[in-house]
Amino acid sequence: MMGMPITVDLGGSVGDLIGRVFDYFDDVDRRFSTYRPDSEISAINRGDIPVRDWSGQMMEVIRIAEQTRRETAGYFDIHRPDGALDPSGIAKGWAIRNAAEIVRRADISDFFIEAGGDIQSSGKNASGGDWSVGIRNPFNTDEIIKVIYPRGRGVATSGTYARGQHIYNPHGFSNPITDIVSLTVIGSDVLEADRFATAAFAMGRDGIFFIEQTPGLEGYLIDSNRRATPTSGFGAFCQS
Fold this sequence. Notes:
The protein is of the alpha+beta class. It has helices at 17-32, 40-46, 56-71, 88-105, 190-202, 207-213; strands spanning 6-9, 111-115, 118-122, 133-137, 140-148, 154-159, 180-187, 218-223, 228-230.
């Protein structure tokens, strides 16, 4: 989806459910990918589709993006420096959350869905234990430096170590974010984690304080000096 790998673990025999989940992700890609010239968002950015003809899904994501912009003092903004819309900072978490609902409606309570490092899990894994999520060392991505147990909450990580400087500060487009390299956020679901992880990363080092002060969120920041800063409640998710 949008150039990112997807993992879906539903456990056991689930018939065509896996196929339905991946069909949904394919639809999201066709609608929101800025890499596809035939996507709805690409057509919108070309001026080919008037606002009155935007899909309901597009309008929903735009509405959530605007809500997030207000809640983060403008640090989350889907407008690129050239004025084009890029909803990828929110569409991924939104899509994973919706995929999880497809699974739940099929009466599956034990599952793990991950796309591009953003995760929604529920219930237990095949061994009967809690699902675990590893946080990679951004300076050595083969190393896991923290293991967390989200227990039904969503997890999202924003960073520059894998894709370079693709996140920007809307209040200073020309100033790259160099003081931090990774920020993992735990939220009530993956959409909450995703939208606030993107915004907090755009804040730079101050982002971890924003996460600390926002009810329902916990975070783990790694700065360019290889120092980690967790929020006060983050440690509770590191215990199996």
